Amino acid sequence: MVSVGTIIWLSSELMFFAALFASYFTIRSVSTSLWAENTALLNVPFAAVNTTILVLSSVTCQLGVFAAERGQVGRTGAIFDPRGWGLREWFMLTYVMGAIFIAGQVTEYTSLVQEDVTISSSAYGSMFYLTTGFHGLHVTGGLIAFIVYMIRTTMGRFTPAQATSAIVVSYYWHFVDVVWIALFAMIYWLQ
């Protein structure tokens, strides 16, 4: 039931992001010169590296789910040998990669604000910060979910219900990654 409920909730989140995409494209269609001058300020290579980190975090998250399904909560070997990593190690790496992504977003925001691209400076700034900012809030929510879940795995013995929770957290994380891939394509490729 938890998995089904999560999928239904993620469907509503998808509608929210669909509305943001529609707004972005609508405003862009009537402000083409504004988009041309502001997208030139974007650091596409930096954003591509940041995107790669987030996408790879989905891989590490899924490896954590596989470990949870095996019932392997912690590592079985040396810390620097990923072949023996369990759920906690994979989820911790996923958390770190997500935090790096958020730090990259903050870095990008800082450089754009220095170029006078702010939420109140233009329609472009409003749409850029709304779309990427709401996504960043969702990533932050995922990071909080990882922390809560990791704490739960330290309380008592690992159960099938906790393995299901790992799967549910991964659904959310994969959703956030897929949304970012679409946002990246919309903002950085379709300049």
Describe this entry's structure for a reader.
This protein has 191 residues and is mainly α. Helices cover 80% and strands 0% of the residues. The radius of gyration is 19 Å and the shape is elongated. It starts with a helix and ends with a helix. The model has no long low-confidence stretch (mean pLDDT 94).
Quick structural overview:
With 191 residues, the protein is mainly α. Helices cover 80% and strands 0% of the residues. The N and C termini lie far apart (42 Å).
Characteristic terms for this protein:
191 residues, 6 helices, 0% strand
How does the helix and strand content classify structurally?
mainly alpha
Overall geometry: elongated
Number of DSSP-assigned strands: 0
Radius of gyration: 19 Å
Low-confidence stretches are: none
Please give the share of residues in helix: over 70%
Distance between the termini: 42 Å
> Describe the biggest sheet?
none
Q: Strand content of the residues, in percent?
A: under 5%
Estimate the mean pLDDT confidence: 94
Total helical elements: 6
H-E string: HHHHHH
